[in-house]
Design goal:
single chain, 7 strands, 175 residues, four-stranded mixed sheet, alpha+beta
Length: 175
C-alpha cells in the first residue's frame, strides 16, 4: 500500500477539482470517527496523514500527571520522561502513536461514508461559488428532461431547474 493512498488522493483531487487538503482532511476526520467507534468516544484521538509513507497515522493525546486516574488519557511523569521527553513536566501533553488496527467492516464502511460525504460537500461548495455571483445572467444549456412543468437543464458541471414561471410562453422545449 506504499504511496497508494497518495495516488488515490491526487486522482480524486484532479477528477473532482477539489483541493488535496480538503480530501486529506476528510480522510483524517473519517479515521478519527472510526477510531472513536472502535476505542471509545471519550478518548482524545488525532489523525495525521503522513505523505512519506502514504498512510494515516492515529495518535492519542496523553497528559502528564502525578497520579494516574485515567490510564487511557494520562501518564506519570516518570513514564513521560522515559518514553517521550526527558524534560517533560506535569501538565504537558504528548501524542502517543496508536497501533494500526483493523476497524472491521462496519468501521470501514462508516469511514468510507464520511469521506464520500465530505467530497460531495466540497464539490457542492465549488459549484455554488462558481455560480453565486452570476445571478441574473443568461446561460445556455442542454435540456435533459421534464419534471412536472419544470425543465432540468444541464449546464456542464451541474444541472439547473428552469421553473415554469421563468419559461418563455408558447415556447416549445425538447430534449
Amino acid at each position: 500500500m506504499e504511496f497508494q493512498l497518495s495516488r488515490v488522493i491526487d486522482q480524486v483531487s484532479r477528477e473532482k477539482q477539489i483541493e488535496r487538503e480538503v480530501i486529506v482532511g476528510a480522510i483524517e476526520e473519517a479515521m478519527v470517527q472510526a477510531a472513536h467507534r472502535l476505542l471509545g468516544a471519550e478518548r482524545q484521538i488525532e489523525a495525521q496523514f503522513n505523505a512519506e509513507i502514504g498512510e494515516v497515522e492515529l495518535f492519542e493525546i496523553k497528559r502528564v500527571v502525578d497520579v494516574v486516574a485515567d490510564p487511557e488519557s494520562e501518564i506519570t511523569l516518570e513514564q513521560a520522561r522515559a518514553d517521550y521527553d526527558p524534560e517533560a513536566e506535569i501538565g504537558d501533553e504528548f501524542l502517543g502513536k496508536l497501533p494500526q488496527k483493523e476497524f472491521g467492516r462496519i468501521g470501514a464502511q462508516a469511514a468510507k461514508q464520511a469521506i464520500i460525504q465530505k467530497v460531495r460537500d466540497a464539490e457542492r461548495e465549488i459549484i455554488y461559488n462558481e455560480f453565486k455571483d452570476r445571478k441574473g445572467e443568461l446561460f445556455s444549456g442542454i435540456v435533459q428532461r421534464f419534471e412536472r412543468r419544470n425543465i432540468i437543464v444541464n449546464l456542464g458541471r451541474t444541472d439547473a431547474i428552469l421553473p415554469e414561471r421563468e419559461q418563455i410562453p408558447r415556447e416549445r422545449y425538447r430534449q
